[in-house]
Amino acid sequence: MTSDQTKIQAIIDKHHGQKKSLMAILQDIQAEFRYLPQESLRAVAKTLDIPLIDVVGVATFYRAFSLKPRGRHTCTVCQGTACHVRGAPRILDEFEQRLKIKAGETTEDKNFTLETVACLGCCAIGPVVVVDGDYHAHMTVRKVGTILKKYRK
Amino acid sequence: MITILLNNVEVQVEEHWTVLEAAKFYGLEIPTLCHNEGLSPYGGCRLCLVEIGEKPKTRLVSSCTYRVEPGLVVRTDTRRVIQARRMMIELMLSTAPNSKILQDLASRFGVTQQRFTLRNEECVLCGLCVRMCAEQMDGRAIGFQNRGHKKKISTPFDIQSEVCRLCGACMYICPACQLRCQGPEPDTAICNACLTMEPTCLERYDELQCWMYDAGRCGTCVQDAPETGRPKPE
Question: Which end of chain A is more exposed for a tag (fewer CB within 10 A), N or C?
Fold first, then answer.
């Protein structure tokens, strides 16, 4: 068994291999690998005795899960109405140019994943960019470089 | 046995029946697409909508998933129902304009316009194939993935499934797989080639008055009502 397989099996065992823990198991795998590898879904389906298609259905239904490898840091640029009128599209453009990816993609060095969101519910401090759960308020195009530098090693 | 009011007629029905089963038992035809007797009810296509309750508090429910209850008032062919069905056919036809079953439904219900952008997805997400695979074939090889406008039916990871036995039941039951006949105008969204007549009752009354369901529509009403300004059937 490779180390990845051992890790996946350990996560499944932690939840006692119960069917009702499917979501929790997927969340733990997502936290460990930053995405859900195919093998992990197959292993989960086999151990929990759930049809593979149902596991895949759950994994693709929720946005919290990703079947594609994601970057170490997630940049979420709010594109809600309030942020939009204050220039969120320009901020997104700046991110896209600097990272050389489109929204929804991951950089080649697996450092950043760029995402958009419809509204984060904190319109008063918009435009908002969230990087790994840290909220950056009143974003401007100029601040983009500083933020990226902070998270880039 | 319980009593319900089905199109203003008091009828006796079994408690475990759905409204669709009751209507079928008494010879009323309700169009369905995602319903199949061998599969669990799904309520996805919304073609089997009926109006329940008494005015002014009526509502539309899908008859294939709605259980009969004592004193239930059901009307199967009101203006509201027919309009809702036409809208559903129009919507589904914009997704899969090449489906023969949908084209036939459009002809039967007089759907003559297409106001939505054609998408040619050739799937209306009725879920028949998914249920067929899981319930009748015990396969569970295909299922729904993603959600919202990205929802699709596929195998895990879009590669051939290990549990698929290539039985073909999913294609057999699919309402969108059977190609439409190439009518006189095959390029238009709605061919309406089978559309020779449509009942004119709705212009005068609140409900379809046609009692010729099973025999096919005789068309007398159309011929007797030249003042409606409709083109007469050839």
Answer: C
